[in-house]
Amino acid sequence: MNTKKNKNITTFDEILDKKYGKKGSVKREKWEQEFEAFKLGVLLEEARLKLGMTQEELAEKCGTNKSYISRIENNASDIRLSTLMKIVQTGLGGHLTLTLQI
């Protein structure tokens, strides 16, 4: 088995380094934060769809409105932790787990 690296392969981290700078740079950190917000929106949308709920139904269960749910799912709105917990626990019947990386 050949264990040499293929020099024609570019990793995703290398692409991000080139476009946004190395991890820790201002531009890269901004991209990382926006990507996390995007992932959160996708996770909430997937959970909602898995439960067969509309945005309106989810909004009604957690005491907000459809447009706010839509903005979260489409990464157009910041979300407070308390609101996120209410959406996950009350609206989706789930449990929120957070991790911290230093």
What does this structure look like?
This protein has about 100 residues and is mainly α. The protein has one domain (about 10-90): 434 Repressor (Amino-terminal Domain) (Orthogonal Bundle). About 60% of the residues lie in helices and about 0% in strands. The chain has 5 helices and no strands. The protein has helices at about 10-20, 25-50, 55-60, 65-75, 80-90. Helix 3 (about 55-60) crosses helix 5. It is elongated, with a radius of gyration of 18 Å. The N and C termini lie far apart (about 35 Å).
Biggest sheet, open or closed, and with what strands and sense?
A: none
Find the count of extended strands (DSSP E, 2+ residues): 0
List the secondary-structure elements in sequence, H or E. Answer: HHHHH
| C-alpha geometry | elongated
Report the top-level CATH class: Mainly Alpha
Number of domains: 1
Radius of gyration: 18 Å
- Please tally the helical runs, counting DSSP H or I stretches of 4 or more residues: 5
Mean pLDDT comes to: 90
Question: SS-based structural class?
Answer: mainly alpha
CATH topology: 434 Repressor (Amino-terminal Domain)
Q: CATH superfamily membership, which one?
A: lambda repressor-like DNA-binding domains
Fraction in beta strands: under 5%
Binned, the helix content reads: 55-70%
CATH architecture assignment name = Orthogonal Bundle
Q: Give the low-confidence spans.
A: none
